[in-house]
Write a structure and sequence with these properties.
Strands 2, 4, 5, 6 and 8 form a five-stranded antiparallel beta sheet that branches. The radius of gyration is 24 Å and the shape is elongated. The chain is an alpha+beta fold and about 240 residues long. The protein folds into two domains: about 130 residues, Jelly Rolls, CATH 2.60.120.380; about 70 residues. A hairpin with a 4-residue loop joins β4 and β5. α3 runs antiparallel to α4.
């Protein structure tokens, strides 16, 4: 009888686990996912279009990007569809050559559940990110719109070269991360095995020297791709 009871409990536990995974998968069906980092940001955004997103996890942050070919006063409206008393935050940041820069002015909003808020900020030419965050909330939705509606050329890619310049940056960043991880692993192996024979140590040190050169080359490729994107996306075509 005890074995039967235990078997039933195991089946019930497994069923609950499957249900939890299924529920989590249902939440993970956001239209713009994956867009949880600058590298995977969704876009480019177009003025006058309403975009809707969903928070998949309690620490989910969604990123979108858009272009500004000339100095523009960006207007944006954000709606928090969550009925309860939770808030979401939005922020606008600018892509520089090798970093993400904050924007001076009213580039951020905090919107409580069931509310809509609007903001406006003057932006210079360049590529920008629109970030949406809602701490501790899962499965809740939001929407936002960039304006003024009708001036779509302000936010659309203003040249094919601009839109085509982003994927190489992503690829170069991935390659840099991979080779950097290999270098870190090789250094760690050498540290963890101080009693290795001199011949083996020399081989590992040679590998580290080779990986250092690869990291330097990968970093150069990333900087070149980022510089090319900045040039393509910051100057009106």
């Amino acid at each position: 009888m005890r074995l039967l009871t235990r078997h039933v409990l195991l089946l019930a536990t497994a069923a609950l686990a499957i249900f939890a995974v299924a529920a989590q998968s249902a939440v993970a069906a956001g239209e713009w996912e994956p867009n949880d980092s600058y590298l995977t940001a969704a876009g480019p955004l177009v003025a006058g279009t309403t975009y809707t997103g969903v928070f998949e996890t309690s620490n989910d942050v969604d990123y979108f990007y858009f272009y500004v070919p000339q100095q523009t006063q960006l207007q944006f409206k954000v709606t928090n569809s969550t009925p309860q008393n939770v808030y979401l935050c939005t922020n606008i940041e600018r892509q520089a050559l090798d970093r993400i820069e904050g924007i001076n002015g009213n580039a951020s909003l905090s919107v409580y559940g069931g509310e809509s808020k609007s903001g406006a900020v003057t932006l210079t030419p360049g590529k920008y990110y629109f970030e949406v965050d809602c701490p501790g909330t899962v499965g809740k939705t939001y929407s936002f719109t960039l304006g003024p509606a009708g001036v779509t050329s302000t936010y659309e890619p203003f040249a094919l070269a601009c839109a085509a310049a982003h994927p190489p940056v992503t690829a170069a960043s991935t390659a840099l991360g991979q080779v950097s991880a290999k270098l870190q692993k090789a250094r760690q192996r050498l540290t963890e095995h101080p009693r290795w024979k001199p011949l083996r140590k020399r081989k590992v040190r040679a590998k580290i020297a080779s990986l250092k050169s690869e990291v330097q080359a990968a970093r150069g490729n990333y900087n070149a791709a980022a510089k090319n994107e900045l040039a393509a996306c910051s100057v009106p075509q």
